[in-house]
Amino acid sequence: MQSNDQERAHVRISGQVQGVFFRDSTRQKAEELGLAGWVKNTPVGSVEAVFEGPSEKVREMLRWCEEGPRQASVENVDTDIEDAGGELSGFEVR
To answer: Would you call 41 a catalytic residue per the annotation?
Structure first.
């Protein structure tokens, strides 16, 4: 894999995704994969996140988001793939 094979995914996850440890589980998985970015709850009851890193790892994270943690019930994952900006470091829960 080339070092420039980086991408960013901006995702919006809907379903029963708040109050089920979705954000903390997302942080743990993203850190395990070495991804940068953030995750937060939205006022409309969904979860929004940005993942940035090697394309292969970002795609693995997106597959994880389809299921989420055991307590979650994911209905939809809306994803926009973008060029990696490189300004993100670490992964935070907002």
So the answer is: yes
> How many CB atoms lie under 10 A from the CB of residue 33?
17
Distance of CA 92 to the CA centre of its chain: 11
Per annotation, catalytic residue among 4, 8, 27, 41? 41
Question: Which position among 4, 8, 23, 76 bears the catalytic label?
Answer: 23
What is d(CA 71, CA 94) in angstroms, rounded to the nearest whole number?
A: 20
23 catalytic? Reply is yes
Q: What is the pLDDT of residues 5-19, one digit of tens each?
A: 999 999 999 999 999
